Amino acid sequence: MSVSRMSQLVIRTSIPTPLRAYLSPLPLVATLARHRGLIGQFTSREIVERHRGAYLGAAWNVINPLISLAIYTFVFGYVFKSRWQEASDGIGGQAIGGAFVLPFFLGHALFHFFSECVNRAPGLVASRPNLVKKVVFPVEILPVVGLLSSLVYPAVAVGCLLLVQMLLVGSVPPTALLLPLVVAPLVPLCMGISWVLATMGVYIRDVRQITVVLTQLAMFLTPVFYPVDRIPEQWRGVYMLNPVTIVIENARSVMLWGTWPNWLALGGVMLFGLLVMQLGYAVFMRTRQGLSDVI
């Protein structure tokens, strides 16, 4: 090869896309819109495969929340005779235990959604090497599929809660129609965390065990088993910095107490959730190129 030909050779290297290129919401929205059909197919398959081989199949999506509600009603309502202060005013302090079970079960259902998204996220990509190694497959939709499939439990649980509330209390406040708007800020928050943990779970396999421990700790630091009023006043402000706490407390307000939510606090959680979602998407897309080499 002559010197003149060699001088014309250009060495091309693969330069990773900078993180700032994914900080715009337009690529995120375009990705979700472009792959919406694939997301729907994988979500349906995920829901069906959860109970594949079981005799009752998808019926377990209804049976599990009902069994949980029955157990909580018996243990906390009849054995411990626990009461929720707001319940005594809002739903009449029902003697059969609704005064504790209803607010507890609603908080548990919402936190269950959050914890399931977080705990499953580290394995969403790591457990699917066949999809990661396919160049044409958009692996960034896997956390989206995991989140949508996790929505089944809280949706069914809220339906069961409405039925039990009608039986125990006899009515549901009109503000219950606002529940989807109140819970909405949890979606982008969980989505952003899922994207970050999904890519971390490939590079650091211990992340899955760490998230399980942290979510268990977070459950006791979130007013699921107790009202915010039980928290010492000097620590109450710190508790209210938890975005999950804000969502749960406002969900109880509209669903059980019949009062309007704190739109300002929910708006802050929504903005924070959108920021976390955008950053999570940027981190995932920035590290996506190396996933197939590590997995």
Task: Give structural notes.
There is one protein chain. The protein has 295 residues and is an all-alpha fold. It contains 16 helices and no strands. The protein has one domain (35-287). The longest helix is centred in the middle third of the chain and has 29 residues, at 98-126.
Task: Report a brief summary of the structure.
With 295 residues, this protein is an all-alpha fold.
Pick out its properties.
mainly alpha, 16 helices, about 0% strand, about 300 residues, about 70% helix, globular
Secondary structure layout plus pairing:
Blueprint: H1 3-7, H2 25-34, H3 36-50, H4 60-79, H5 85-90, H6 98-126, H7 129-132, H8 142-150, H9 152-168, H10 179-183, H11 186-203, H12 207-220, H13 233-239, H14 243-257, H15 263-287, H16 291-294
Helix pairs in contact: 3-8, 4-6, 4-9, 6-8, 6-9, 6-11, 6-12, 6-14, 11-15
| Class based on secondary structure composition and strand pairing | mainly alpha
**How many β-strands, per DSSP?**
0
Largest sheet: none
What value does the average pLDDT take?
A: 83
- What is the helix/strand order? HHHHHHHHHHHHHHHH
Residue stretches low in confidence (pLDDT < 50, at least 5 long) are 1-13, 90-97
Number of domains: 1
Strand content: under 5%
Compute the CA-based radius of gyration.
23 Å
Number of helices: 16
